[in-house]
Amino acid sequence: MILTCPRCASRYFVADGQVGPGGRAVRCAECAESWTAQPTIEPPTAAGPDNASPLFTAARAKAKGALPPRLAGVTLALVLLIILAFVFRTEIAALWPG
User: Fold this and answer.
1) Is the pLDDT of residue 89 over 80?
2) N or C terminus: fewer CB in 10 A for the chain?
C-alpha cells in the first residue's frame, strides 16, 4: 500500500497489514503533517514489471531516486578536485616541499 501525505505529496510504502480496518494515525517524515491513513481495497490486477501502473512506477522511481542534492554536490566537488589535481599535477609537484 502506498500512503501519500496530503500536504507535501511525499509517498511511503507500507505493508498492507500495518494499516488496520479502522485506519492508523501516521506522520509525514518530510513536513511532519499528521493524518489518519485509511486502508484501501484494490482489486487484484495483472500488473507485472512490463505493464506496471504509472503511479507505482513513479513512486518506485522516487523511492530509489537519484542522489540527494547534498550528496550529489559533494560527489561533484570530489570529482572536480581529482580532475584538477590530475591536470595541474606538475605544478603541484613543483610546489610540494621537499
Assistant:
1) yes
2) C
Query: Which residue in this structure is represented by grid cell 501525505?
Result: 5
Task: Determine if the pTM surpasses 0.85.
Answer: no
What b/e sequence results for 64-96 when a residue is b if at least 16 CB atoms lie within 10 Å of its CB, and e otherwise? eeeeeeeeeeeeeeeeeeeeeeeeeeeeeeeee
C-alpha distances out from residue 53 to 3, 49, 56, 67, Å: 16, 9, 5, 24
The answer for 7, left when phi > 0, alpha when psi is -120 to 50, beta otherwise, is alpha
Residue carrying C-alpha cell 522516487:
62
